[in-house]
């Protein structure tokens, strides 16, 4: 049985699924597919906290599924732009937990993670499975993965 680390970039999945399909990710189905026949060492969901009740309910659903939810405050800059991504945090957690796992499942289509996937595979000997919306997942990330699993069909609500 493979030991797995499950990392979910909530913001990326929300926006890519909404843009490509006008739908949401079924996190219960994602958990079931990504962990089937595997032992979960750690499961982390990374989100931006805007402080509203609907978001808190969603975060509690994620916790109920089995995710540890990591939150970062939403930052609105004076010029109107916004900041709020977890790329560095996801990368640090992946490298930190890599020695304890055989497989990292990363749910994100962000091409910035291609280097992480290469590093996990080549330097840590860890398989990398990427879950992403096919039309909005960076080609470099798909190529860096051991396996790419499309977020479509029964993985959507």
Overview of this protein structure:
The strands form 2 sheets. A 6-stranded parallel β-sheet has the order 3-2-1-6-7-8, with helices on both faces. A two-stranded antiparallel ribbon has the order 4-5. It is built from 6 helices and 8 strands. α5 links the parallel β6 (103-107) and β7 (127-132). It is of the alpha/beta class and 157 residues long. Helices cover 39% and strands 29% of the residues. It starts with a strand and ends in a 7-residue tail after the last strand. The model has no long low-confidence stretch (mean pLDDT 93).
Quick structural summary:
This protein has 157 residues and is α/β, with parallel strands linked by helices. It has helices spanning 10-21, 27-35, 53-65, 87-97, 114-124, 139-144, and strands at residues 2-9, 38-49, 68-73, 75-76, 82-83, 103-107, 127-132, 147-150. The strands form two sheets. A six-stranded parallel beta sheet has the order 3-2-1-6-7-8, sandwiched between helices.
How are the SSEs ordered, and which strands pair?
Elements: E1 2-9, H1 10-21, H2 27-35, E2 38-49, H3 53-65, E3 68-73, E4 75-76, E5 82-83, H4 87-97, E6 103-107, H5 114-124, E7 127-132, H6 139-144, E8 147-150
Parallel strand pairs: 1-2, 1-6, 2-3, 6-7, 7-8
Antiparallel strand pairs: 4-5
InterPro entries: LabA, NYN
Organism: Halomonas mongoliensis
Protein name: NYN domain-containing protein
């Amino acid at each position: 049985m493979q030991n797995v680390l499950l990392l979910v970039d909530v913001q990326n999945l929300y926006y890519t699924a909404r843009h490509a399909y006008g739908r949401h990710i079924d996190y219960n189905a994602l958990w079931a597919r990504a962990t089937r026949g595997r032992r979960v060492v750690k499961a982390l969901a990374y989100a931006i906290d805007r402080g509203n009740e609907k978001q808190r309910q969603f975060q509690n659903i994620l916790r109920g599924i089995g995710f540890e939810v990591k939150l970062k405050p939403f930052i609105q800059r004076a010029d109107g732009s916004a900041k709020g991504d977890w790329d560095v945090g996801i990368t640090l957690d992946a490298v930190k937990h890599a020695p304890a796992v055989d497989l990292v499942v990363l749910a994100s289509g962000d091409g910035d993670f291609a280097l992480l996937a290469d590093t996990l595979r080549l330097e840590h000997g860890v398989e990398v499975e990427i879950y992403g919306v096919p039309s909005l997942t960076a080609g470099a990330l798909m190529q860096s993965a051991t396996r790419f699993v499309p977020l479509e069909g029964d993985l959507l609500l």
